[in-house]
Design a protein that fits this description.
Elements: H1 6-26, H2 35-62, E1 96-103, E2 110-117, E3 130-134, H3 141-147, H4 150-159, E4 167-171, H5 192-207, E5 217-222, H6 224-235, E6 242-246, H7 266-271, H8 274-280, E7 287-293, H9 297-309, E8 315-321, H10 328-345, E9 393-396
Parallel strand pairs: 3-4, 3-5, 5-6, 6-7, 7-8
Antiparallel strand pairs: 1-2, 2-4, 8-9
Helix pairs in contact: 1-2, 4-10, 8-9
Length: 397
């Protein structure tokens, strides 16, 4: 009887109903001083079983836990997680994390972001490639660090030669912790697609030594963040060369957490659905990597639909692990290989500054539909030590 089984759901319902009926029948039968603690315990058991019914129902819908062992171990957040903005000490053996506030000139959105700078950032003059990383919902940049420890993973991959030195940006993607922006430009509402794909790039390009051409930027996200990564890459192929979606979905949703993002405009909703876009619109020359656990039922079905619809010049790579469900443990296991793949799709550090796509205040950037190619010399990267991905199947379309 697994955490997602119908038998478990039936068991919790029967137990909850039985306890409720027994409590009602025995309420007046209790006598003496112990009737009050007896009633309290009976009510407490009723509450616990009612929550169990709800919890199992939610888990069966989302497939967050597919095995009992996942309730302990890898899925637990660190007891005392370090703040993401803590800066590493001096020296070149470790990177550092800084916090910034990004004011969107186009979107009008102002939110914080965390920026990871690799160990060589301060000692090199090269402009580095950038990854923009999105969490799920509910979630913040801190969620990435609780789930996958990307700082440690990135530094390990750089040291092993599987990634070049890379800057990673973790933007806040929701204005409210209770409202899912879906990273889209809402009809008559917040323009999060503009903020995340244009304003964030402009700010990072103006304040950090990074590449500003499309070959230097990639996206990665898990769950809702995976949807964001795929959607933004397909909508802005002039800004991004590649994207990774881990356990993402590819059809735009509206529910109680999103509100009415599209104001009934079905065309706008379709245009924010990656699956619809590759089925109905010309596809860009873009590289996508979709990863999922096979027992993440909804996520796996979405991955299969995308794989079936993919066509040239879109390059689609899939990676499927056998189990893990829709959980942080599964995403953590997927992250190293996903980062290695994403880095391989991007250009490496550029010795000279590539052509700028125009940070705030650069009039040459206004109205441009694409980015100029990078200029300067791009030193060859060392041969990448390919990371084996045990228990994962891969397919490239």
């Amino acid at each position: 009887m697994s955490p997602t089984s119908l038998s478990l759901q039936v068991t919790t319902v029967v137990l909850a109903v039985t306890l409720a009926v027994a409590t009602g029948l025995g309420w007046e039968r209790a006598r003496g001083w112990w009737r009050w603690p007896t009633r309290f315990l009976a009510l407490l058991c009723c509450v616990v079983t009612a929550f169990s019914v709800a919890g199992v129902a939610v888990n069966r819908k989302l497939h967050m836990y597919t095995a009992w062992g996942q309730f302990a171990g890898d899925n637990r957040a660190p007891a005392d997680p370090q703040p993401v903005f803590e800066t590493a000490g001096g020296g070149s053996s470790a990177g550092r994390l800084v916090t910034v506030t990004i004011t969107g000139r186009r979107s009008g959105i102002e939110l914080p972001a965390y920026v990871y700078l690799p160990p060589s950032y301060d000692s090199s003059t090269a402009r580095l490639p950038v990854l923009e990383a999105f969490a799920g919902f509910p979630g913040t940049p801190q969620t990435w660090f609780d789930v996958a420890d990307p700082r440690e993973v990135v530094e390990r991959e750089i040291k092993a030669g599987r990634m070049p030195p890379t800057v990673v940006v973790f933007p806040v993607q929701h204005a409210s912790p209770t409202r899912d922006s879906e990273c889209v430009d809402a009809a008559g509402g917040a323009q999060f697609a503009t903020y995340l794909s244009l304003d964030v790039q402009d700010y990072i390009g103006a304040h950090f030594r990074v590449r500003t051409d499309r070959a230097g930027w990639g996206l990665i996200g898990f769950s809702t963040g995976g949807f964001c990564a795929a959607n933004l890459a397909l909508r802005h192929p002039d800004r991004y060369a590649a994207a990774v979606s881990m356990a993402g979905y590819f059809t735009a949703i509206t529910d109680g957490t999103t509100g009415d993002l599209y104001r009934g405009d079905s065309r706008l909703r379709d245009e924010n659905s990656p699956l619809w876009r590759i089925e109905n619109l010309p596809v860009p020359a873009l590289a996508l990597y979709l990863a999922c656990a096979r027992d993440d039922v909804k996520g796996f079905a979405q991955l299969q639909a995308m794989a079936a619809a993919a066509r040239s010049p879109l390059k689609l790579t899939t990676a499927v692990v056998p189990d893990g469900g829709h959980t942080g443990a599964a995403w953590k296991a997927m992250t190293p290989a996903a980062l290695d793949w994403l880095s391989a799709q991007l250009g490496g550090p550029a010795v000279d500054a590539p052509a700028d796509h125009g940070p705030a205040g650069n009039p040459a950037a206004e109205g441009r539909s694409g980015l100029a190619p990078a200029t300067g010399v791009h030193p060859p990267l060392p041969p990448r030590n390919r990371r084996p991905t045990p228990a994962a199947s891969h397919r490239r379309v």
